[in-house]
Fold:
Amino acid sequence: MTKGRARTGKRRERRAAPPARAPRVRSAPAVLRFTGRLVRGLVFPVLAAGVVAAVVLLGMFPARAYVDQKQAIADAQTRLDNLTAGNKKSEEDLARLSTDAEVERVAREQLRLVKPGEEVYQIMPVPQDPLVVPDAWPFDGMRTRMGAEAPPPVDAAAAANPASTSTTAATTTTTEPAHR
Structure:
């Protein structure tokens, strides 16, 4: 017997040496090798920037809609507050107009109604001065169409010495020719 391990009938086979590689052909210039490394180095940053841009663009539209909705809600709330205040005022007016004294006041002031047997006196406003149009060429036709009066004649002596004019108003009378 032999020392050591017992041999089995199989023999250990040796591995064959790997086939020889073909020599690498280095026909590409150094610039192309640098460009390849550059492209491989830029793929991740460009891809990450694209993902960030997509997230920003896709997130911008919902954010804009959210802001628009907030503004619409604020506008609706303002409108609701105005309508509520208007309703409250209308209810106060309704309660006030439910009394006979207020109905009578509104009828007298706004509708100018009177009770039977009352007399109404109304003060008329002071009539306006008649329209005076200058007595010059472009205003002749306008004066006749509007029925305006010609201005009173100016005295030559009064125009030369304005201090001698009196403060009383002169009355003018127009005479109409008699028709026969």
Q: What stands out?
A: Helices lie at 30-96, 100-109, 140-146, 156-160. The chain has four helices and no strands. Residues 32-119 form one domain.
